[in-house]
Amino acid sequence: MRALHERIGPSWLLVVGFVLMFAAYEGGRVLHTRPAPYHLWRQTDCLSITANYQAGRKFLEPEIHARIADDGHGGSSAGEFPLIYWAMGQVWKITGQSEFAYRLFGILLHFMATWAFFLTLRRLLESNFWALTTALLLFTSPVIVYYSMGFLTDVPAFDLVLIAWYFVVRHAQEQRRRWWVCAMGFFALAALLKVSAGISLVAIVALLCLATLAPGSFGAYRRLLPGTRVAWITVALALLAITAWYWYAEGYNARHNGRYTFNSVWPIWEMTPDEVDRAWTWAKQILVFQVFDTTVWVALAVALLALLAHVRKLPWPVVLLNALLLVGVVVYTILWFHALDGHDYYFINPLIALLVLWSTFLWWLHHDHPRLFHARWLKVAFTLLLLFNVAYAANNMQMRYTVFGPVDTSKILPIYHKHELPFWSAMDYYGVRSTLDMGPTLDELGIPPDALMIYLDDSSINGSLYLMGRKGFTSYGYDWSDPSTYERVLDRGAEFLVFAEERWLEDPVLQPYLERPMARHAGAYIFDLRNIPGRREEVIVLEFGENLAPPTTLRMDTLHCTIVHASGWCFAGSEFPLEVDRLPAWSSGIQKAQVRIKGEFHMEGASTTDEVFLVLAEDDANGPVSNVARPLANGKFDLHWSLFLRSEAVRTKLYLWNLSGKPFSMEGLSLEVRRWTASSEEG
What is the rounded CA–CA span in Å between residue 332 and residue 454? Predict the structure, then answer.
């Protein structure tokens, strides 16, 4: 190893080692593949947001393909801070939609983090060998390897944490504020990308609290942290940025009533005993071996026992840091215990506790047992450990990417764990396999990219939709056994129907929508839902300012506005300035009705969407049936309300609800009621 150091240097060895490991994992092939089936759900969520940014979506208005927001009319939904999605969306504007570019970005970022980890260890250990091999050992964790070339934000967030720790160590050694500022910036960005990446920041805040309240207890180690004022200002800014985004995301989702993920805990106390048992079993049989192989766990256990036995010889702030991180991982596991069942990526960021533990162990060896630290036999043993785990991770990647059949044991090494083989052999795309290459077929059929699709066999949010390159509806949030569901999504613009399972052909609820078959692709059926035979549409336009036919009535608190265009109206600041009562939604034979109002809203100084609402209310003799409010913001609006299977006894009313107390104007108001009658009712 020393000869190699002298010939090409440790930095180049790191580059060569990383590239060779990347090749062992068949990274060149993986970069060119479509999203793998394991956690396809979450991968396609990320890719969906990216594709919508490519299409021009605003940074603070993330959108997904699935129409799960705004009562099925849109896909506005926010989760983690969308910086990577937005950035890759801008790249895609140049390259076109490229999963290769996304995967390449992920692996390059992880290499940068590996480099930062290497530099950190070299500063702490003053050993090129241990810095190099430990940094490369991280790249043998199957979850790191898989998701570094994937599309989730977990590994990028973890990478930013590693870079942040490099700046923490550099600040401790050089006492320069700029390194602390850089560290807090990277910690904040990491937690914005994935809140679980905040484990390190929480531990540092705890240390900082102690240093502030009892500075004397730190003694000479107090200099490892910056001055109190600088430290707390930067930490406060980091926490403020993190809080601001998640507060905004929560409000954004509340306004649009659509969530592709949740920014909350998933705790053990909300689980049934069976769920707890299933999660714990999966963690023991599968998850633990996706973090590291047993050989690495044994090495970590030795390190922990050695440190516990010699804890008095360690700097107590370092002991406290390790304790805080390990306790943090335990608390995190309890709060997200549900994730133990099948969600391996949730345990990427807790890996930081293991890295700090191992780094502390090596530091202790370096200072207290230098002969052992530099022993050739120990270096040879660790090198063999590294090589074995490279083979283990390569094995794991081959199993993860065996997607069209069971794993062929003749093509892999027998170093996998007992339950891994059946688990990975069962992995498949299941009902969405046909969508992997369906996009060109849809193009050939003349189905435009903006057409809304229904895909019945997909329980995920965006899986089939993203893979097809079309927006629309899946089984997530929609009950396809309910006849009204089809009417609802048709009303929201669904034009084409796709499914792969033969059982749908015999489904009586689906029969009316199978009148216009278009094509088959890889076993999937494609149907046209436009202009379904046997249905008649009637449009009733209601004019503002004119007498309406009874029983419909119009009440407006204002006069015709003279300061805007002829089609404009000025409203005072009263609470209910407009009311259209008894809309002609129902009569004999009506199957479905829709109310639509459009125009342009203006209020002086209005910047939020929680002051003025248009509300559609339905009441019958027993009281309210429904009451759906839609917020108005400055600018044009086009709002729809769909009504299904009601009766003439239902009274339908549209009204303005002004909570601001401010006057406002509306231009180009247009109100219409659309009604659909079945063919049996046509005269």
Answer: 38
How many whole angstroms from its chain centre is CA 318? 34
Q: Quickly list H helices, 80-98.
A: 83-95
Token pair of 533, please? 């035979």
Q: How many CA atoms lie within 13 A of 325 on its CB side?
A: 21
CA distances from 513 to 325, 528, 534, 535, 566 (A): 56, 8, 11, 12, 44
Structure tokens at 400: 């993860």
DSSP secondary structure code for residue 34 in this structure: P
DSSP 392-426: HHHHHHHHHT--SS---GGGS-S-S-TTHHHHHHT
Number of CB atoms found within 10 A of residue 269's CB: 9
Half-sphere exposure of residue 624: CA atoms within 13 angstroms, side-chain side = 6
Give the whole-angstrom CA distance, residue 526 versus residue 393: 40
In sequence order, which residues have a C-beta less than 8 Å from that of residue 544 and are 6 or more positions away?
554, 556, 569, 669, 671
Q: Which two tokens mark 441?
A: 């077929």
CA nearest to 130, candidates 455, 359, 414, 470: 359
Contact 619, 651 (CB under 8 A): yes
Can you list the alpha helix ranges (DSSP code H) found in 257-293?
Answer: 273-282, 288-291
Cβ atoms 660, 606 nearer than 8 A: yes
Distances (CA, A) of 535 to 272, 365, 426, 530: 48, 80, 45, 11
Task: List phi, psi (to 5°) of 499.
Answer: -155, 160
**Residue type at 195?**
V
Cα–Cα dist 247/244, whole Å: 5
CB-based contact 60:85 (threshold 8 Å): no
- DSSP lists the bridge partners of residue 62 as none
Q: How far apart are the first and last CA of the chain?
A: 91
Closest CA to 83 of 196, 189, 163, 161: 189
Which two tokens mark 145? 């390897």
Q: Which residues pair with 555 in a beta bridge?
A: 579
Which amino acid is it at 547?
N
Q: 145-154, 259-268, 538-547: lowest mean pLDDT where?
A: 538-547
- Work out whether strand 471-473 and strand 452-455 pair parallel, antiparallel, or are unpaired: parallel
Tracing tokens 């570019």 back to the chain, one arrives at 101
Give 77-125 pLDDT, tens digit per residue: 999 999 999 999 999 999 999 999 999 999 999 999 999 999 999 999 9
Q: What is the pLDDT of residues 596-648, one digit of tens each?
A: 899 999 887 654 556 888 999 888 878 787 788 888 888 888 887 777 656 67
Helix ranges restricted to H, 512-669: none
Q: How far is CA 329 from CA 294, 335, 385, 673, in A?
A: 19, 10, 25, 56
Strands 664-678 and 471-473 turn out to be unpaired
DSSP for residue 269: G
Instruction: Reduce the secondary structure of 443-466 to three states and give it as a string.
Output: HHCCCCCCCEEEECCCCCCCHHHH
Which tens digits make up the pLDDT trace of 179-214? 999 999 999 999 999 999 999 999 999 999 999 988
Distance CA 623, CA 646 (A): 14
What are the residue ranges of helices labelled H in 126-221? 128-138, 142-148, 154-174, 177-193, 199-213
Rg, Å, the chain Cα set:
30
CA 45 to CA 462: how far, in whole Å? 6
Residue 187 near residue 164 (C-beta atoms within 8 A): yes
Distance CA 115, CA 606 (A): 49
> What is the rounded distance in angstroms from the CA atom of residue 306 to the CA atom of residue 360?
11
Check whether 683 has a pLDDT greater than 50: no
What's the rounded Cα separation, in Å, for the pair 535 and 529?
12
